[in-house]
Amino acid sequence: MSQLVDLMLAVGSSPPVSPSSNTVDLPPITGPAAISAGNATASNNDDTSVASESPLTTVSNPSLGDKRRAEEDLVEFAKQVGRRVRLRPAAQKELDANAVLSLSERTLWISARLLKHEEQLETIQPAEVQWTLPRGDKIEVYSYLVIVSPLLPAYVRHSTPNKCIKTLFDRHTHWGYTTEIRNNTHKNLIVLKRITDRLTDRRAELKSMVWLSLGPEMLSASATAKSRAAAARVDIMTLCESIAAHLAGTRVQVTLELCARVALLRQVLIEVLSIPTFNINQYWDRVDTHLETIRTKYPQATDARMITKVFMAILNADMKEFGSPSLPDARGQDATSAPSQLQALADDAADNFAHDLREE
Asked: Does residue 134 carry a pLDDT above 90?
């Protein structure tokens, strides 16, 4: 009998046996359940002073060794899971590294993986759009031509550029945007999302070119070394020629109207960068506000001459600040200022199809 008592005492004083490789520790209880459990424990402890002094109370406050043991068990579990789903060695290594992260770190890691998967899906979609529009990626071309059109009434408000391009496609069904595609929810959403994404890119590209034309001193503190090397103060013609040549195949013609519109874009950008209360993320909205103010001041069709005077004043102010090059002629005034057929179609779309032009 005494031997049995001695054996029991020996077992009670020995350290706990480590779990086998086939067991997994459950995560600690958190939230209301943990609070309830804590209250129950506290109630039991109040019943006897001996319990509060018991060494068993240290279980609620695990030591560093216990924490390390939990991490080791989680790594071991990660290896088991990896073997079960047959991960490749590189993926297994990444899963093992994830097992020792904190909860916050692991959450960020998962978020990054999800974002990466979205990027990969977006690279797949253009191929489907290309199939949807068999005559080539018209979205690539017209998203740029519409954004750089001096006739565009708004850049972000009311999704104006999106509507321009969609209506343009509606009017040219031989490009591939057929009734069957418009009525197919999946295919139609692919096309519309592609239009939205490319227009977002085009606005960013145009703003970047205008921003670089202000010189390196106007760049933000976070600008890259490459941007600083590319930044230089240039006159309006040089800037417009860079914009015209930005996307190969679009055949943008630099005209007097384009120079005036780009001068407005540069004026608003300077305004946004110079006033501390303005946010650069609101740049395009402020451009739209300026355009709407001009239209509101001169609402009649007979006010076209006055609107031209406003834009010429903006252009003259730009040339006074950045240099006075020789300006091109107005759109279509002669052969040198005649737009290409691509640009004419985009200008027509931006101008709410005032001429209803058709591609031959």
From this structure: no
- The Cα–Cα gap between 346 and 202 comes to 14
Cα Rg of the chain, angstroms? 33
Highest mean pLDDT among 26-40, 114-128, 312-326: 312-326
d(CA 194, CA 267): 30
Q: How far apart are CA 59 and CA 185, in angstroms?
A: 57
CB 259 within 8 A of CB 243: no
Element of type H or E holding 163: helix 160-171
Q: Which amino acid is at 253?
A: Q
Between CA 26 and CA 7 the distance in angstroms is 30
DSSP 332: T
Q: Which amino acid is at 88?
A: R
- Model confidence at 281, in pLDDT bands (50, 70, 90)? very high
| Number of residues written out for the chain | 360
> What pLDDT does 71 receive?
66
Q: What are the DSSP E strand ranges found in 220-287?
A: none
The structure's pTM equals 0.64
Q: What is the pLDDT of residue 101?
A: 86
Contacts of 325 (CB under 8 A, 6+ apart): 235, 236, 237, 238, 319
Nearest to 130 by CA among 51, 69, 187, 197: 187
The pLDDT value given to residue 79: 86
Question: What distance in Å separates the CA atoms of residue 341 and residue 172, rounded to the nearest whole number?
Answer: 14
Listing DSSP states for 22-85 in one string gives T--PPPPP-THHHHHHHHHHHHHHHH-HHHHTSGGGGGGS--HHHHHHHHHHHHHHHHHHHHHH
CA distance 97 to 94: 5
On whether the CB atoms of residues 287 and 155 are closer than 8 A, the answer is yes
